[in-house]
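We read letters as residues; the fold follows as tokens. A sample entry reads:
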Amino acid sequence: MAYWIGAGGSALFVLVFLIDGWRRPGYSPVRHPVSALALGTRGWIQTSNFLCCGAAITLGALGIVTSGRDLLLGIALGVFGLGLVVSGVFPMDPMRGYPPGSPDGDPADFSTRHRLHDYAGAVVFLALPAAAAVAAFVLPGMIWTAVSAIAAAGLLFGFSAFGTAWEDNSPKAGLVQRAVIIPGWLWVTAVFLHLASH
């Protein structure tokens, strides 16, 4: 059951931010990061998405650890899930035009909660490729080895590309982030579904 919950949480996270970002007034999925959806009057939707889906992934990871299937994979996915939870507890600051009426640039000083959100994001973006790298060695079959190894390399490259786009205030930073998050989170979904069926 824990694996199914983990798979559902990972897939639901993507579904929720895609639908909400598409329907959110003043929000640009191309420019703004997923985390910005936790701001504004409808911010509770993405906050809940972080908390619920992060908890679901953590529960799935706990299932891996307690089953004895692979301790390192379970720990890496658990850290990933907990990082999502912390990201929901500490939202980013309003900036770069969102929510509407916010300054178009960055604040002169970031709040403590924003810094904690950044730290949590760094944990998320490092734990996920680490989990994929571990999976390349522990999941059976050449397909899982190849897919997980490609995922690990692609995630590291993609998160680095997003970091650069974010620091440069690229108008396509949100698009770059989504190009990494969607396949990364779907890989997590696939891993949990695989474990649930074997």
Q: What stands out?
A: The chain has one domain: 2-196. The radius of gyration is 17 Å. The chain is about 70% helix and 0% strand. The longest helix spans residues 112-138.
